[in-house]
Design goal:
Elements: H1 14-21, H2 26-32, H3 38-45, E1 53-57, H4 66-73, E2 78-82, H5 89-106, E3 111-118, H6 121-130, E4 136-143, H7 146-153, E5 161-165, H8 177-181, E6 186-191, H9 201-211, E7 214-219, E8 226-229
């Protein structure tokens, strides 16, 4: 048996390593993973279950590397990335893509929120990786075409809630609001200030009742004041994207 002064981390059993590593942050764990010994890597991976929600801004992107992000993605229940319209798509996708690859492997991801993004075909392809498991998709601060959105919704059979700026009124001849409302149980619509609603309340009520969909309508930035058409929901709209909303289902 080694003297205590000569014992290193790789001499410790799993229980001892777990007792130590449970105090490390995600950033600290990522800095250790892949840098020392396979036993340490395994101890780090046993801690990833603590991190079910990933949030970052591309103004200060994490520097974890593709392999580490994909590994982390297997444990995530929600992802929130604030991109910024001035950020190159390749830079944001370097974070989002490996996370979604890992999330696809586990099928655990329930909520995805992207902000200030102009969708490209590459973004759509990445979202489609996890569409099958999503319960909530927040694209309220994204720019996209109707075709892009519907391609995602048609691949998301479990989707419960969609949060977006209203496109219920559009000149796109291929768009069918009926098709959109058939894909979700709750549609959260943000009405921009000074803009009239896409439909009068009577039409929104008819659409909601016809499709048994809750349409929650509020005006940014006064998000605490909202109107619900159709079935009522006991939840706070501003918190719905967060992974804790889904914790009872996991």
């Amino acid at each position: 048996m080694l003297p205590e002064s000569q014992i290193t981390l790789i001499d410790m059993n799993d229980d001892c390593l777990d007792a130590i590593f449970k105090y490390l942050t995600l950033k600290e764990l990522m800095s250790v993973y892949g840098e020392t010994h396979v036993l340490i890597d395994e101890a780090v991976k046993r801690q990833f279950h603590r991190f079910r929600h990933f949030e970052c801004t591309m103004r200060e992107p994490p520097k974890y590397g593709e392999h580490k992000l994909q590994l982390l993605g297997r444990y995530l229940h929600s992802i929130f990335i604030n991109v910024g319209y001035s950020i190159q798509a390749r830079d944001a996708l370097a974070i989002l893509k490996p996370l979604c690859r890992g999330a696809k492997e586990s099928g655990r991801l329930r909520a995805l929120k992207l902000q200030h993004v102009t969708w490209t075909s590459e973004y759509v392809d990445v979202i489609l990786l996890v569409a099958n498991s999503l319960r909530l998709l927040d694209v309220s601060r994204c720019a996209f075409s109707v075709t892009q959105l519907m391609s995602v919704l048609n691949s998301a059979p479990k989707l419960h809630t969609l949060k977006m700026v209203s496109i219920l009124k559009t000149t796109d001849e291929e768009f069918s609001e009926e098709e959109l409302l058939q894909q979700v149980r709750c549609l959260i619509v943000i009405n921009q200030p000074l803009l009239p609603p896409s439909h009068p309340p009577s039409i929104l009520s008819q659409l909601a009742e016809k499709h048994k969909v809750s349409i929650i309508f509020y005006t940014f930035p006064h998000c605490d004041s909202f109107t619900t058409y159709g079935p009522s929901l006991i939840m706070r709209p501003m918190a719905m994207w967060h992974y804790e909303y889904f914790k009872d289902e996991l």
